Amino acid sequence: MSLLSRFILGTALLLVSVLPADAVQPRGSAGWTTDGWTNYTGILYSGPGTEYSSTGNVAAGIRIRVDRCSKLWCQIHVGHLAGWLPLYNVSFGQRPSGWLSGPRFPHWVSGGTLCFFSGSNYRGAETCIAPGHVYKDLKLVGLDNAFGSVKIDGAGSALVCRDRDFRSYCKVIDVDTPHLEGLLDHAITSIRVY
Question: How far is Cα 78 from Cα 64, in angstroms, rounded to an integer?
């Protein structure tokens, strides 16, 4: 092995060893366990239903990672535990809240059209959406995970979320945004324009 190859290999190993453990983005969407609207048991199942075997228990109000959801169940993991919980026991907000509470924001500004661009700095394909329009699943209109920046024409705002039906990570866009943040950059699946 040449001296240059040894140097490159040594440098790569050194970089890997000094990176913090949390430098790797965790898989799955962030979420919380909640008590939903039923008696919360916290039982995780090996499949999406109570007919499957138990894989463990998780208390209400615990930060979890959601791997995927079916119509009524979500596959989650937390620490060494993994399994399926009923959808009504999972909250995708920034803190644990009830199943039907959804994201809450102090005010809405209405009246402006929002233009979403496929690239940063308002470049690329443009899709403008007027107030009052709601897209629960952008995949149905061929625009899932398509946006990198947002420009507001007038006084308007929008709620944008990573997953369909306004689940997972959500944020209000009420100012021109030349580059969407990491969790939303080319990751928006539902939009409501006010």
Answer: 5
Local structure of 61: helix, strand or coil:
coil
Residue 173 to residues 61, 134, 159, 169, 186, Cα–Cα distance (Å): 27, 14, 6, 13, 15
Strands 29-33 and 63-69: antiparallel
- Predicted confidence at residue 109, as pLDDT, reads 44
What homologous superfamily is domain 29-91 in, according to CATH?
SH3 Domains (2.30.30.40)
Chosen CATH of 113-193 out of 1.10.8.60, 3.30.310.80, 2.60.20.10, 3.30.420.340? 2.60.20.10
* Token reading at 141: 């209109």
Contact 131, 194 (CB under 8 A): yes
CA distance 179 to 121: 6
Quote the Cα angle for 14-17-19, to 5°. Answer: 110
Q: What angle do CA 164, 89, 47 make, to 5 degrees?
A: 85
Question: How confident is the chain (194 residues) per 10-residue block, as mean pLDDT?
Answer: 63 54 57 71 89 91 83 87 87 58 44 89 93 88 93 84 83 89 89 86
Rounded to two decimals, the pTM is: 0.47
